[in-house]
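Re-run requested by the PI after the first attempt was lost when the workstation crashed. Everything re-entered from the original request form. Ligand of interest: flavin mononucleotide.
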Amino acid sequence: MEDRIKRNREAIKPKWTDLYKTNTAKKQGKERPEQFKSVPGAKKIDLLKVFPNIIRKTLQEVIASRRSLRSYSDINLSFEELSYLLWETCRVESFRENAVFRTIPTAGATNSMETYVFINKVQDIEKGIYLYIQESHSLALIDNDDLIDENVNEGLLKQLRGAALVFFFTSVPFRTEYKYDFCAHKMIAIEAGHACQNLSLAAEAIDSGVCAICAYDQEKLDKILKLDGEEHFTIYCATVGKK
Ligand SMILES: Cc1cc2nc3c(=O)[nH]c(=O)nc-3n(C[C@H](O)[C@H](O)[C@H](O)COP(=O)(O)O)c2cc1C
């Protein structure tokens, strides 16, 4: 096997027992990383927390109907549907100084992930890139440039496909490295997978579908989301739209 492949495989099979001997940032007493990203001064939108118009489907129904969807109707999502998808995918149930509890599991409650959304077709919301503010279930506007859909489409290597929304799951790796050092990276990737699965199932509940996307242009997307690409970068995307 080639060395470069072997090296990459190491990231998904770290030797956990070596962690006990590793002088992690936490053991060194370094400052704890921030738990949530904030955007001071940004325009904020509070999302809904109750969803009277979302038709209840059983877990069996949503699992059975889930398929990657790459062709979307032109129907806009409602504000309630947007709120619902973020609520089920990303919401924070509770947190304390050293632990965050979300709808998805997060390794050692370290919460390495942030979520950005490109809103393309949602009733009553301006098109643009938003950060999901986890601890308050709200959105902060990051960018509403006129060329934003073209740029997002380029960043997704032409896979926007007229989607109503794009979720960008991003990682702040030091939040997990702080405690888990070289074991962190596998768990960071798995965490994004948990989020995308919640999104896929929640989308089925509103007669929508999702396409997970890993084939994207790393540098372009990080630039669109205004991330530095080192301490904070995109790791997984998902387009969402009505069937
Ligand atoms: C980690 C991951 C990355 C993926 N990346 C892409 C992608 O970049 N573009 C795409 O069209 N589909 C992508 N997919 C979707 C898969 O192609 C799809 O899940 C697969 O064909 C099985 O189809 P199903 O989801 O309908 O079961 C990805 C799926 C996963 C789990």
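Saved to the shared folder this time. The longest strand covers residues 233-242.
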